[in-house]
Structure formats: C-alpha cells, structure tokens
Amino acid sequence: MLKVTIGSDHRGVHIKNRLIQALEAHDFPVSDEGTDSEKSVDYPDFAQDVAKKVSSGEADRGILICGTGIGMAITANKFPRVRAASCYDEVMVEMSRRHNDVNVLCLPGDMIGDRPIDELVLMWMNTEFDGGRHADRVKKISEIESRCCPEPDGNESPLAPSASQLDH
Predict the structure, then answer these.
(1) What is the pLDDT of residues 89-109, one digit of tens each?
(2) Rounded CA gap, 33 and 76, in Å?
(3) What is the pLDDT of residue 168?
(4) Residues with catalytic annotation?
(5) How many whole angstroms separate alpha carbon 148 and alpha carbon 45?
(6) The domain that contains 68 carries what CATH number?
(7) What CA–CA distance (Å, rounded) separates 128 from 137?
(8) What is the pTM of this model?
(9) Can you tell me whether residue 137 is helix, strand or coil?
(10) Cα Rg of the chain (Å, integer)
(11) Whether 86 and 114 share a structural domain
C-alpha cells in the first residue's frame, strides 16, 4: 500500500483533516505534517516537510493544501525526485499521474469549493503512471534535475552549470 504524507497551511487545515480520514478509510497509511490550526503559518514550512519525506522515499506520495496550491508546488519541486503539481479538476489530477508520474499533489483549498475533493485525491492515488513515451520524458526531467540541482547532502551535482554559465 502506498504511504502518504500530507500537510497544509492554515487555509487548508480543514481539507487536510478531511482527506486524512478519506485516505485512512481506503487503507492508505498517512503521516500528518501539520498544520493543526487556522492560525496563520508559512506554507513553505509544511511543503518542505512533506517534500523531504517523498524525496527520501520515506513516503511514496505527498499531498499539500494551501490557498492556490501554487506556492506549495513551487516549494516541493525544489527537492530531488519530487514532481509536484497544482491540480484542481479530474483531468489535471488524472493526467498528472498518467503522463507526469506526479508524486506530490498540491491542492487549491480556496478554489475547489464544494467539489468532491476526496474523490479527486482518491482518483490521484489510484491512477497509475502510463510509462512508455511518458517515462522517457520523466527521465529527461530527472536528468535535468541531476545536472542543475544540488544533491541531498548539499553538494553541487558535478554536472550542474556554474553561476557564470547560468548568467549567459
């Protein structure tokens, strides 16, 4: 069974709590990275906690909720092996898995409204990656990441461009 880690800022805390119940009802093991109140917090703090677990392999998938899902996705995508996307409907949720093998779903808590968010998340959890030509594209993303991003130990990748190369 896929292990899930979930986090939100203050704008997504109620949705997060509801999603934990839905995921556990479908036998997905879930770790809650917070927040636990509506007191204003900074979304990058929670995005990094979830992304670290997915990046390290401690969790198979991550779910993040903030107002738009955009800030969470930007933050989560800074971590190696994380492919995060902000999705708000069935097509985006399905295609994020089938074509991009997204492992961190970022949800816009302020924009989903009364739509059945539980169903979106369960669709995302149960949709398989198509592989094939899409695997070739995801591999290219991973290769770009290895050339351009620091390794988890903080050392720069030997293939990463120097600062002067990035300026040109």
Answers:
(1) 999 999 999 999 999 999 998
(2) 14
(3) 36
(4) 66, 99
(5) 23
(6) 3.40.1400.10
(7) 16
(8) 0.88
(9) helix
(10) 16
(11) yes
Structural tokens at position 73: 């996705």
CA 134 to chain centre: 18
Beta-bridged to residue 85, according to DSSP, are 105
Confidence of residue 48 (pLDDT cuts 50, 70, 90): very high
Give the residue among 58, 67, 69, 56 at the shortest CA–CA distance from 96. Answer: 69
Query: Which pLDDT tens digit goes with each residue over 138-161?
Result: 999 999 998 887 666 655 444 444
Q: 43 lies in which domain range?
A: 4-130
Cis before 75? omega within 30: no
- In the block, tokens 């990035």 appear at 166
**Residues 19 and 87 occupy one common structural domain:** yes
Hey, is 72 helix, strand or coil? helix
Of the candidates 2, 44, 37, which has an alpha carbon nearest to the alpha carbon of residue 23? 2
Amino acid at 14: H
The sheet carrying 104-108 orders its strands as 30-32, 4-8, 61-66, 104-108, 84-86
Given a contact cutoff of 8 angstroms between Cβ atoms, the answer to whether 117 and 150 are in contact is no
